[in-house]
Amino acid sequence: SLSNDVLLESRGLTVRFGGLFALNELNIDVRNGEVLGLIGPNGSGKTTFLNVISGVYSASAGKISLGGIDITREKAHNISSYGLSRTFQRSRLCLSLSVFDNIALGAQRTLNNGLWHNVVQRKAFAAEARKIAEEARELLGVFNTALPDKLFDPAISLGMIDRRRVEICRALIGKPKLVLLDEPSAGMTHDETDQVVDEILGIRKSLGGLTIIIVEHEMGLIERVTDRCVVLNYGKKICEGKFRDVAADPVVREAYLGQ
Ligand code: ADP
């Protein structure tokens, strides 16, 4: 029953930790090309949803499909090769490596293992490495900064906001279909967050067709970047629609007040 407009579909998706239902028979459609905000009080299951669709957790029941392919039982590395990538709340950059190497780690998704290993080891496949460097420069150029010139600087020399940009670029290398952004504002000031918002909008514009799921506490960011929101509470979907509509919904207001 998958329509062409739907990129990711979950049906009856359930994740249990012992007796706790972190996700409880969740049906979510993520449409092609949309920015979907996943919101809800603490502990409502947002991170669990990202983890189960990216293969970090396995589903206790239900089904997930991506681009019409059943990925419910797939391992994380296979799911990423189908075009799903993500960022994490806490930075996962290797600080001793260069910006380029960190971004090339993201390209592992689209290359076979041997090829990727050679790129990182600088052994062979110079053409492949050059292609990645070119794409990395292009992506870094989306952010209106000097980052493209810092491609071979160690990540440790970058400030917080540049590190976040590099992580986003790592998720974007190799043209994924679906990108999961887990709290892109985490650890940043209000101004920095505003900047990242503008940049996410810019990325979306320059990479036509990209679909994004964003988990975020900063409601201003959710309001500005999302086309639609799904609101979770106790692992269930309690509301969906445009941010301003869900934000005004009494059921949603009560869920947030209850926390
Ligand atoms: P959110 O991201 O909305 O804050 P989470 O998805 O992190 O919520 O958590 C949903 C529920 O599942 C919480 O009650 C949390 O304690 C529980 N949970 C999440 N991950 C685990 C885990 N690995 N083991 C046990 N319980 C977990």
Automatic annotation (TrEMBL):
Cellular component GO terms, alphabetical: plasma membrane
Record's keyword annotation contains Transport: yes
This protein's record includes keyword Repeat: no
Name by which UniProt lists this protein: ABC transporter ATP-binding protein
SMART domains cross-referenced by the UniProt entry: AAA
Superkingdom field: Bacteria
Stretches that traverse the bilayer: none
InterPro entries: AAA+_ATPase, ABC_AA/LPS_Transport, ABC_transporter-like_ATP-bd, BCA_ABC_TP_C, P-loop_NTPase
Task performed by this protein: Involved in beta-(1-->2)glucan export. Transmembrane domains (TMD) form a pore in the inner membrane and the ATP-binding domain (NBD) is responsible for energy generation.
Organismal lineage: Bacteria, Pseudomonadati, Pseudomonadota, Alphaproteobacteria, Hyphomicrobiales
GO MF annotations, alphabetized: ATP binding; ATP hydrolysis activity
Protein keywords: ATP-binding, Nucleotide-binding, Transport
Gene3D superfamilies: P-loop containing nucleotide triphosphate hydrolases (3.40.50.300)
Domain ABC transporter: start-end pairs: 8-259
